[in-house]
Request: fold
Amino acid sequence: MKDDEAILCYNGDIITDLPLNRLPEAHGRKRVEVTLTLRSTGPLLNVNIDDDGAICDLRHTLGKPGIQSCLFAGIYAVETSYLQYLEPGRIESVVFPFLRSIAEKPGSIRGIVIDEGAWYDIGSPEEYERIKALWPRYERAAKPDDGGLKAFTRSALRLEARAPMNLELIHRGGSERDIHRISAHAGSFILVDYNPARRENAFYVPIAEFLRGIGVPVPRILAQDMDRCFILMEDLGEKDLYSLKDVGRQERKTLYRKTLEAIRKLHAFPVDSFPLRDVPLMEPFGPDLYRWERTYFMENCVRNICGIELERSAHEKLEKELAALAGGLVGTERSLVHRDFQSRNVMIRDGEPVLIDFQGMRFGTLFYDLGSLLCDAYVEIADEERLDLLSYYYNLSKNSMDWPAFQKMFWNASVQRLMQALGAYGFLALRKNLRGFLDHIPAGLDHLNHAARQSGSLPRLEDLLNRCRGNLEPMGAKFQR
Reply:
């Protein structure tokens, strides 16, 4: 092997479908001696990283906690030149040479947090047998029948074995969850049957309990079966913010203001007080996740939907422009964010908002949530109305940022969020065959183009969006702006 080559190492007792391509990409950008794949949750959080992504401690040996404790996923990239630090013929854990490098040359070993996909350690006979027994469920080959769902519900509600019950599938969406409405003499309930391969699906219950504890309105959880991946919760009815998009302006204004008041409780929670050991979260927003979102957009929307493949030089210039935007978002004050805070994830019960689909909650910038709601591709909001709602939140938050800077950051975050949403529409439509998402792409591109213009610093993105529009209009796509 050449001295400037890298080796990809994969521990044999790990099973995962995480997006492994992100590891060599991250290693190639920095080209440090070693890059470890990390997870932000798991049974053994003993890898510490600093605010720049460098590993500062392993197994709490050096007494340097950094800003986050992570799980080592057993997959890493190492430069061939690093092999000189290993003693020929000696069998030892890689942890010890890694620790020596961290102590002698800080920054030489880095980490990339990849929370997407499933990850299992089958390093013990007990864990192997457990995963083996559950595997059909993880692969969705053994979906529960109606009888199993009803039996769980009867047990959870302490109903008689033959108590009449109606089960109706009301949603099968992109998050790999089947949502059923249960009707019985005891009332109406929602039963969620989720795929555990999407790790965040298992986070719903602990996050719901945390949110209720800090006063954020969320559904009441009635029961959970983690082995069978069932969650039973209260039924909030049919109305959501999206279904009320055409109500009178004053009524909509009231609903949106109440929704902003609800999310403010989440944003205002002190980051340092968050119970990380009790409430698992997905990977926090940072340079890597923002990069993944824009790559997701370029692949699934720009290339696969709009049929545009940028030349290398044009792509590099656009990437530089969008990386600068992401850098500004990283520099804002960190807070908890919902991550999918849009009109279909805000139920309305008795005139009050209740938040749902918060399993992707993580640390990030509050502007991402504001962009998700106020530049929602599902809903048309006039500029004057949007500005009024943004100003309402600004005064509510008592933010130290001046108003023009606050608006600028809002538009930048809206651009970032809309790229993620458009990437998701393309992926779900073409890869998951959920063709209805194609209908939202023209509006999403309209919103993204408007946000890019308001940002005032994204000329290359604006040019690309005009090309997207030009390619889609001859195919019948309808644009509003």
